[in-house]
Amino acid sequence: MKILESLNLRRREGKKSIAVLIDPDKVENTPQLEPLLRLAAEDCVDYIFVGGSLITTSNMATIIKTIKENVSMPVVLFPGSTLQIEPTADAILFLSLISGRNPDLLIGQQVIAAPILRGTKLEVMPTGYMLINSGKTTSVAYVSNTTPIPEDKYSLAATTALAGEMLGLKLIYIDAGSGAERPISEKMINAVRNAIDVPLIVGGGINTPQKAIKALEAGADLIVIGNALEKSPELLTEISDEVYNWNQSIKAK
Ligand code: 1GP
Question: N or C terminus of the chain: which is more exposed, having fewer CB within 10 Å?
Fold first, then answer.
């Protein structure tokens, strides 16, 4: 089954998913990855995302190889630019940064990437990517040269997501940015959730099980955890327990 199809199915069933984000720039060597991958396999993580807003290393292929040697879940590229297309992954979030007004990230990079992607077997997942302000400037806001949506402008975020869905985007990803001071508020997640039907991905600053459960309760279908696991990989067990309990409670209903 295609990843997009499975995300839609899980959404219809009310089930939640979890993705671990690996930033190749923060992995000095591949053995460093193995403990995290072991936990990911034990804890039934659904997806591994690979990407970052500023990748300066060229170890993407090696990292994906290590992931695939250790775990079986799909590897999804979460690219900061067209330079980050790696055909050995399973899928790519084909992002348009719809919260910003930088034409290069709305359509420019995509024009360059499209013919490259056509020559790969990657599943292309059209995704409306939205940055939400979260305190101090994040790398992604700086590098993308866009202004995140203010964190209290709920209807602006909701209508941006709705426009993305009407344009045919199949996923909406709201992101506070990696290592955000504050994750996206429940009120904001809820406002975006209520505006759209497509699966909603939420990430940025989710570094405790409580924050994870709040994001799920507010309407996230898939939560992305990156930064926090670099410091304490064991957090993954606690967060994935929450997701597991949630999904079990759905089954019980
Ligand atoms: C960043 O949404 C992702 O783009 C994950 O954020 O690294 O803060 O978990 P963290």
Answer: C
